[in-house]
Every structure is written in structure tokens, then in C-alpha cells.
Amino acid sequence: MGPCVPVRLAAAAMTAAVLTSCGAAYPVPPQAAEPVVSTAPSAHPVAPDPRVGAVFLGADGVHVCSASVLSSAVADLILTAAHCVADNAEETFVPGFSDTHPAEAGRRLDAVYLDPRWVRDQDPAADFAVARVSRDDGPALPTVAGGGLHLGAAPAPGTEVTVVGYGYGVGGGPTACTAATAAPREGFPAVHCDGIVAGFSGAPWIAGSTVVGVIGGLDGGGCLDEVSYSPRFDGALAALVARAEAGGPSDTPPAAFDDGCG
Known about the structure:
Blueprint: E1 7-9, E2 17-19, H1 22-25, E3 44-45, E4 52-57, E5 62-69, E6 77-80, E7 91-95, E8 107-114, H2 116-121, E9 129-134, H3 141-144, E10 150-151, E11 160-165, E12 169-170, E13 175-185, E14 188-192, E15 204-207, E16 210-214, E17 227-229, H4 235-246
Parallel strand pairs: 10-16
Antiparallel strand pairs: 1-2, 3-13, 4-5, 4-7, 5-6, 5-12, 6-9, 7-8, 8-9, 11-13, 11-15, 13-14, 14-17, 15-16
Pfam families: Trypsin_2
Organism: Mycolicibacterium rufum
InterPro entries: Peptidase_S1_PA, Peptidase_S1_PA_chymotrypsin, TRYPSIN_HIS
């Protein structure tokens, strides 16, 4: 199954949450009589990148999504998929997370900024979120991340991008896949890479020092491991970054997400 991780809050407690990866929560699509051999590049383990990290829910050590550090002179900001954040959930971001490399301490997601289209009806075209993060001590996030990633525009077909993210679970490290972007589907930029699994939601599409997409959008980022999507980056995302840098009022995320892959 694809990279989405639906977030559902328990109604009985403000901080209780249940997260299910697509692979566990949804039936596997019917298999063809003859297996199809994919020719797409495959994700493989890579050294941690301090510009990319894992998003954890609560204190149980499970990372549920991925995110990246944005370049900003005035705030500690990360970029992820909107469906990775939920109302009243206690989430933290760990840049450069890995079992085998020293990693930064977790930083709390203090304020989340969402496009009105997502808040209103979870429009997949607005499946991106900017969050201000903090920790009690330590250096600023851009310092840790070597300045972070610059925000770019949606990539044209044929643009080489590297998708870096974390599979849903406990421990582990990042994996990455480099491929040329494919023709958009229904207006959503696409990339063909095997092994983009649950937990990659919010993972950046990196071109040089620029982030041009995140795993998300159509079908929560894709219902199949070998095809992934991104919401189209445009002025609406840049406006979110500006609002987050200014410290304006944050948004309340919706309480549930359905990727439509069932």
C-alpha cells in the first residue's frame, strides 16, 4: 500500500490518538493473475539528512510521518503533509533521526498552519502543512539543519527529485529514492519509486537545496508503493510560510482523514 497514515483522534480523551498505517488498516488491492514487475527505482537506506526527520505521536516511540526543515531566518519551521497533523495530538519532530547516528532531541509542534481548503473539507490539493516547532534548549533548527530547504514551485515532468522519508514504526532510519517526476495525474505531480510506504507521508521531494513537493495530495500520497503524489506547490503554500514566520494565529486541524484507498 502507499504512504498515507490516516490520523484519527479518540473522542474520549484530548490527547488520545489512534494511528493506523495504510498497510494495516486497508485491504490489499486484488492481485493480477500474473505479477507485474516494476521497473521503477527503489527506495534504499541512506545516511541521515539533518534537513529531514521523523514525526512522532506521543511518547511511545512510533514515528508516523516524515517532514523537512524549511529555511527561515525568523522561525523554526517544518513542512509536512496536512493529513499528518491532528487536533489535540502531541507530536514531535526529530531531524536526522536514525538508530545508528546521534539525533537531535524531539521538537514539539507548537503551532500548525493549514490552507483553508484543508480545514474546510480536506481538499487534497491543499494537503500540506507548515508547523512552528520548539524544544526547551539547544540550537535553532536551521542551524542544526545547515540552513534547511528553500521552498520551490511544483516540478515540471522530467525533473529529478530525491524523496527522503521514514517508514511507519519504531526505530530505523531514513530511506530515499531518486527519480524523474512523471506526468501529473489529475493535476498532482507524480513520481514512480518502489518502497515509498506508510510513514512517508510528508516526506520532501528534494531538488538540490529546494523542496518542490511532499508525499501527500491525491489518495493521501498514493495507494500503491510504486506511485506517489504531491499537492501542487503554489502561492498558497508560500502564504502559509509567511503566516507562520509572522507568528500569526495557528489553525485547528480536522480530526480525521480518509485517503480513499479502501
